[in-house]
Every structure is written in C-alpha cells, then in structure tokens.
Amino acid sequence: MSFGSTGYDVAHLLGGGVLLLSFVLLYQRRLDAVINAFAVQGALLAAAAAWQGYSQNNGELYVTAALAFAAKAVLIPLALRLLLRRLGLHRTMETALGVGPSLLAAAALVGLAVMVVLPATAGQAQALTRENLALALSVVMLGMLMMIARRNAVSQVIGLLSLENGLILAAVGVQGMPLVVELSTAALVLMLALVAGIVVFLLRDRMATLDTESLSRQRGEGEAP
Amino acid sequence: MSGFPLAWIVVFFPWAGALLLLLLRPRGRLPAWVNLGVSAASCGLALSLLALPQGVQGWTRTDSVNLPLVALAGIIGLATAAFSAATVEGERFDALRARAYHAAFQVFMGAQFLALLSDNLGVMWVAIEIATLASVLMVAVHGTPAAIEAAWKFFLLCGVGIALALFGTILLYLAAQPLVGHGDPGLSWAALRAVAAHCDAGILSLAFIFIMVGYGTKAGLVPLHTWLPDAEAEGPLPISAVLSGLLLNASLLAILRAKAIVDLNPGVLAPGPLLVGFGLASLLLASLALWRRRDARRFFAWSSIEHMGLATLAFGLGAPLAGMLHLMGHSLVKSAVFFGVGAAAQIKGSQKMEAIKGLATSHPVLGWGLALGIAGLAGMPPFALFVSEFRLVAAAAAGQPWLLLPLGLGLLLAGTALVRALQRMCLGPASPDAPVPGAFGLPGGLAWASVPMWTLLALAAVLGFAIPAGLEALLMDAARLLG
Predict the structure, then answer these.
(1) What DSSP designation does B292 have?
(2) Is there a contact between B428 and B358 (Cβ–Cβ < 8 Å)?
(3) What sequence ranges are listed for the domain NADH:quinone oxidoreductase/Mrp antiporter transmembrane (chain B) (predicted)?
C-alpha cells in the first residue's frame, strides 16, 4: 500500500483524526467539552481499528474496534458526565500550563515523535506502519502532555485514557499483532477507568475540590515535624 | 518438560484464594488465617517448581533467571501473610476493607508469579498491570486523604509507565514481525531472542528505550520514582514488604528480559550505559534523600530506590551475578526491615522516626533484628548485600574505574544515613510505647513479627555466605543467560 491507494489514505485520515482530537483535548477549557472531545476520539479510534481489520483482513481487529467504541465513545464519557453532574462541576478548569504554551509544546512533541520514529524504522517496515506508528507516538506524547498540563483529576484521567488510545492505534497498525495484546489493552483500559473512578469518588468524599493541587498538601511528610 | 502445568497452578492458586477471600464473610480473624493458609500453600507450590525440569510451556517458562525469584516471592509472600495476620487488627479495617485488602493481596501474589513466570512478553505486561491495579487498591484501602493521594500518584505515574512499556512491547513485535510471522510466538521471549540478531536495529533500540522507561517507572528508578515513597508509607503495614520485595523485582526482570533480547543485536544502542545511567541517578538521589526523611517507612522506601539503582547498575556493568544476588538479598533484608518497622509503628503508635527510639532496649528481639537488618541494608556482613556490593565494586573497578567515585560516594552517603537511622531507632533510651489497639493481639504477640523477620534475615545470610550448591549453580546459569 502506498500514497494514493484507498486503504492507505483512509488509514491515514483516521489516524490523523485521532491525533487532531488530541490537540482538541488540549485547548478545551470546560470539562464537559473535554469529555465530548474524548468521546469523539474514541469513536475515531474504533473506526481506525475497524478499517485496519478490513484492510489487513483480520477479524480480530473488529473485536478491538467494538470494545474501543463501547468503552471509549460511550461508557467512559457517560460515566464521567454522571460524575460531573453529581459533583455539580461545569466550571472552567485549572491549568498548570496555559492553552497557548500547551499547543506549542504539543506541536513540538509531534515533531519529535516523527523525527524519532521515521528514521528508526526507515530500514524495514512498510510506509503505512511507519507513519501510523509516528501518529500513535504523537497521540501518546500528547496524552502525557495533557496529564502534565492539567491539574484537574478528571482531565488527568482523560489524558491517561487518550494516551492509551495512542497505544491501541499503534497496536492495530502493526500487522498480525497477537490478539492477546489488543484484548488485554481494551479490557485493562476499562479497569483503569474503573479504578480511577473509585479514586475520584473517594476524592469527592474527602475534599470539596477535584484540583489535585490540594492533594499535594496531604503528604505525610510536611515541613512541620 | 512434563506436561503438568505447575507454573499455571502457581499463578491460579492465589487467584482462587482471592476469590475465596472475596466471597467469605469476614468474621473475626478468619480472613487472616485463610490468607495465611493460601500463602503457605503457594509458597510450597512455588518451591516445588524448583524440582521440575526447566522449560517453556505455552505462555510460561521456567528458567534459571526466574526460578530463584519465584521461590523468593513464595517465601516473602508467606512471611508477609504471617506478619499481616498479626497486624491487620491494628489497621482497623471494616468488613468491606478487610475483604478488599485480603483479596487484593492474593490477586497481587498471583500476578506477581505470572509476571515472573511468563515467557510471552504480552502476558508479562498484563501480569504487571494486574499487580499494579491490585497494589493501587491495597495502598488506597485506608481511604485517608494521605492514602488517597499516594494511590492517586501511584496510579497515574505507573499508568503512564505501563503504557510506555506496552508501546515498547508493540515495537519489539514490530521489529521481529517479518521474521517470526503472525500470532502468539511473536511475543515469546525465546522466539524473540532467536531472531533478535536479524531484526531491525533501529526499531529494537526504540523498543528498548520505551521498555526501560516504562518498566523503570515501576521498578522505582529515578526520575520516575516519586510514587514509591508515598505508596509504601501510606498503605497498610504489610504492603511495604511486598511492594519493595516483589513488585520492583518483577519490573526489573521485565527490563532484563528485554535487555537480553536487544543484547543479541550488535546494531542496537548498547543497553548497558542506559542501565548504568538510571542506576547511578537512583543511587545518588536516594543516598542524598535518605538524610532528610522523618518518616521511617518513607526512609526505607528511599532505601529501596537506592538498592534498585545498585542492582540496575550491576546489570548495566555486565555483572549479572552481583545483580541477581543483590535483588534477592535486598528483597529478603528489606522485607525483614519492614516487618520490624511495621511492628515498631504499631507498638509506638506512630511511624515517625522520632517516635521510634531505643527499640533494642525496650524490645530486644525485635530491636536487634531491626538493627541487624538496617546494618545489612547499609552493606555490612553477614548478608548477601555485602557480597553483591563487593562484587559490584570489583566489577566497576575492573570495567569502568571512573564509576568508583560516584558509586563509592553513593554507598558511603547511604550507608552513613542508614547507620544514623539504626542508632536513632534501635539504640539508646527507649521512647514511650503507645500501642495501636488490637495490634499483635494473637497468641504469640510480637513473635508474629520477629519470627518472619529473623527467618528472612537468616535466609539473607545463607544467601550471602553459605549458599547451597544447587542455588549457586542456578544463579550462575542465570548470570550466563542475562549476559
């Protein structure tokens, strides 16, 4: 497959879409908008996985796609919305790094990802695999950036979830990846979200705010003896 | 290899125990006894693996590298369950928390065994992930703000670490894919080693960096170590022993498995200097940080970072025998020390170092055991850590003499900090007791802490100076495999 063939173009379009949504996640100021963007990213990821299943003629990838859609486009956004409603949180959120600098850093990270992946894989892999990998690594990096740039517990969880989206994108793009990895990833993402949900609920019990900055004061080892 | 899937039984037995503990109505001390029984049986199963011939069986493998660590995990699991039985009342869990705590402990143990025993790197990743989730639950189980913060940090940092490790695993398969084809064997350690020399060196280098950083987070290597002191200080007392003694080993083993693959390809960037860098950074930062700790459990968590750094350094320098000895010696001595510190914390009613003073005066058996353990951590004989640190210094002197200066500085700083802690906590006039209600209420009292502690210390001494010939041969073979 190369540039110009449908399989290549669609895979690129969907992978690029997932990356674009990572940028969208970074410039949202309201929590519900972040959740919406994450849901769209999950849906696009599911489409990318399904398309890879079709073009690699690998039925197992449809399972990955279905799981990704159910968990990331439907269940997790729904759960987070319920949580926000229960907490009465629709305010703008605290950022540790402003939107402008975040986007600049994001662009730099994408450049870095491309510069790292393309030369390293120049020897061997197909063009599609290489570029898919560059896109996936960019999504991983932006997820990490989101976790650093946002202080709010919910958006940090979404940062981690979108990081995992990047992993799935990488896994489905590699032809013949053993199923064990895809299924476990999908299942474990759910579990991660579950644990995160429990933690966030507990947070609510203990503190009035979701700002993780307030957690840092709970260190068992303060300045005072 | 016989067809008997003992490796899977070792993994699934604790998980069955977890299910039982989850379903059982927690009445009185029943869960603690069941937990102890399951751990004793798992320990027996893990030790009996040593008697079977080594080999690969589906997703699992037994070889000289993992067998000593599996046996170690069984022993430390049993010792921890015994300590836990005596201290769990002092933790004041309600019924739900007691259930969650005991079940999570067994889930953790099963996942730990699977992580050590898996041949398939994908399965190993899943196992380490399960172990992480179980330990997040155990750290958070108290539900205090400090415990929640520790669990949150643990979860986020290790979530990122695990994600990066998976990315590395995917890359590893990508490198091998043209040679091993589709399906499960593509992630088998043996298959990857067989083709490693012909894989694309660029992808392999990238894969190793991701695996190193990803699992390095879980192994508590600087700069991604920050979750470790919090997690060990805020969870229930027995958890520190298994986090320090077992979880870190499994993560380091994952790095070593990846290293053994990329080592075979001459075109890949050399993993040794990378390991030396991470190890040295961990050693130096931890040896400084040890001086500023006031909380006893945080203090020994930092000491774990130091020792993982030393082990990583040994593997990076090409002294795998020293590395294996150090991993095992550290697990034994550190778990023993955590039993001593945990018992002291329940006797004195606080885990602050200033509240724990003169333990050897007021409780000689416990206090002298703790003192001996701390001295062992500082690298003094008669424990395995003395032998491994000696071998490490010798390897550094032979290979990279310039390393002697930072290595010596780190060992000296950490050693003196440990000796200072020993003097303050164990010697001199005793601080007043303020026992936590319910602590050591079992018949036998403090023996539940001192017997596991002295047993592990004795094993560490045997490992150092009277190592059985069979185990020595096993470790030699492991060193050969890890190159």
Answers:
(1) G
(2) yes
(3) 118-407
Amino acid identity of residue B174, one-letter, is L
- To test the contact with chain A by mutation, choose from B153, B156, B179, B199 the residue with the greatest count of A C-beta atoms within 10 A, namely B156
Q: Do the bridges between strand B55-57 and strand B60-62 make them parallel or antiparallel, or are there none, so unpaired?
A: antiparallel
Q: pLDDT tens, B419-466?
A: 999 998 988 888 888 888 877 777 777 888 889 999 999 999 999 888
Q: Is position A169 within any domain?
A: yes
Write out pLDDT tens, residues B204-247. 888 999 999 999 999 989 888 888 998 888 889 899 889 888 99
**Cross-strand bridge partners of residue B62:** B55
What domain count does chain A have?
1
Listed residue (B421, B405, B422, B157) closest to B283, CA to CA = B405
- Measured between beta carbons, the chain A residues lying within 8 angstroms of B155 are 195-196, 199
Q: Is A102 inside any structural domain?
A: yes
Among the partner residues B148, B150, B182, nearest to A176 by beta-carbon distance: B182
CB B404 within 8 A of CB B412: no
The domain of A153 spans: 6-208
Structural domain contains residue A223: no
Domain assignment present for A216: no
ipTM at complex level = 0.84
Radius of gyration (C-alpha) of chain A in whole angstroms: 18
Residue A124 burial (CB count, 10 A): 16
Chain A partners of B122 at a C-beta cutoff of 8 Å? 178, 180-181, 184
B96 at A interface, C-beta within 8 A = no
What is the domain partition of chain B in residue ranges? 271-483
Kind and range of the H or E run holding B61: strand B60-62
Contact B395, B319 (CB under 8 A): yes
Are B125 and A181 inside 8 Å of each other by CB?
yes
Among candidates A153, A175, A205 on the partner chain, residue whose Cβ is nearest the Cβ of B177: A175
DSSP secondary-structure letter at B399? Answer: H
User: Over chain A, what is the mean pLDDT?
Assistant: 76
C-alpha neighbours within 13 Å on the C-beta side of residue B213: 12
